[in-house]
Amino acid sequence: MNKIASVIKMHRTDKWTWLLIPWMIMLSSFTVNFTISFFVDEPMITGGLSSIFIYVFITGIIILAQTFPFALGMSVSRTDYFWGTSVMILLSSIVSAALLLLLRLIETWTNAWGSDLHFFKLPYLSDGPLLIQFFVQLILLLFMYYFGFLIASTYRRTGRIGLFLIAGILLVLFTVLSFMANYLNWYPAIFDWMVNQSALDYALWMLPLVLLFSASSYLLLRRATI
């Protein structure tokens, strides 16, 4: 437990990577869109919110390279490193999801910032009670974090050739599935299913993937070398 706490403390010292930089990037995007919204006559719906999800995906990739060798050099086990990092990922995601929800409420209270800018409160993603909205944002953040972390763990375990080989196998698999879907005329049914899913439905579908990504990362890191 002490080692896990040490890993969490190690990550907490890097506030820029975990919290400040992603929010600086997103708020910079908001500032630009807010300025533009005063020169647009129609309601403005922007995709600037995606910047924070893209960043946490990148963070999931780079955080392993930055901290894994150092942690092992400090006699931290691979298991303790994984759990300590996972706690930090969860805490960071909870904080970001809560802040996103708060900004969404402020956007509602200010009547879209007084300029008809819809940056945080987007259609579809903002459906349902506040708790549901928080849950959807949290799962999206965890999904992106662990997706990046899985890529980094795969690279750490198998190297560049192994990563490219796995990516190639997945590409072939998706190509075959795409061909089968087209040949068997599955696409209409797939599209009908997709349009009938709510944001909560997608979040619930992503939850098993989050668990799969995290478990796979753990197994890969157990045999990873520095």
The amount of beta strand, in percent, is: under 5%
Uncertain ranges: none
Q: Give the overall form.
A: globular
> For the largest beta sheet, what order do the strands appear in spatially?
1-2
The helix content is: over 70%
What's the total helix number?
A: 7
* Tally of strands: 2
Please tell me the total number of domains: 1
SSE order: HHEHHEHHH
Query: What would you report as the Rg, rounded to the nearest angstrom?
Result: 20 Å
Mean pLDDT: 95
Instruction: Please report the distance between the alpha carbons of the first and last residues.
Output: 22 Å
What would you say this structure looks like, in words?
With 226 residues, the chain is mostly helical. It has one domain. The chain contains seven helices and two strands. A two-stranded parallel ribbon has the order 1-2. The protein has helices at residues 2-12, 15-37, 50-73, 78-109, 130-183, 187-195, 199-222; strands spanning 44-45, 117-118.
Short structural description:
This protein has seven helices and two strands; from the N terminus they run ααβααβααα. By secondary structure, the protein is mainly α. The model has no long low-confidence stretch (mean pLDDT 95).
